[in-house]
Amino acid sequence: MDDFLEHAKKEQEELNESMKESFRQRDERKANEINMGNVIVQMNKEDIIKELKTVYDPEMPSIDIFNLGLIYDIDIKDKDVTITHTLTSMFCPMADEIGKNIKAAVERVKDVGKVKVVLTHTPPFTKEMMSEEARLTLNL
After folding, report:
1. How many helices (H) and strands (E) does the chain have?
2. Per-domain residue ranges for the chain?
3. E strand map for the chain
């Protein structure tokens, strides 16, 4: 009887270890899936920025809108993207064209779903928002 109990106890311990290992592997897979998801979002954001750098303010054709500091936020939810941007002036006559160009640029990114473009003037644009590259281009 002692041999039987000893054998049953040993089998139970092996089963417990096997289950622990299965749970550990499952948790590791989930963590990897989450990490892979973050990488995918990051790659999409980088792709979006790359496309935004092809959009220019017609009044400042030497600097793209991203380096000009006009992009305030890139919000990615699943495959949908919301771009919040500003203009160099509240009275910019090219506001509609710039917004359409932003939308078209983001829509060119692979796997992007709906694109929403939001114009804001808060905070107002200042030259401090420009990238170092933009300031050097403009000798500021």
Report:
1. 4, 5
2. 2-137
3. 56-57, 60-64, 71-77, 80-85, 115-119
Are 44 and 107 spatial neighbours (Cβ–Cβ below 8 Å)? no
Residue 85: what pLDDT?
Answer: 96
* pLDDT tens, position by position, 42-101: 557 899 999 999 999 988 889 999 999 999 999 999 889 999 999 999 899 999 999 999
Architecture of domain 2-137: 2-Layer Sandwich (3.30)
Taking the C-alpha atoms of residue 83 and residue 96, their distance in angstroms, rounded to an integer, is: 14
The distance between the two most distant Cα atoms of the chain, rounded to a whole number of Å, is: 93
Identify the burial level of 139 via C-beta atoms within 10 angstroms of its C-beta, where 0-12 means exposed, 13-18 middle and 19 or more buried.
exposed
The pLDDT of residue 39 is above 80: no
Bridge partners of residue 73, in order along the sequence: 84
Burial annotation 17-34 (CB, 10 A radius, 16+ → b, else e): eeeeeeeeeeeeeeeeee
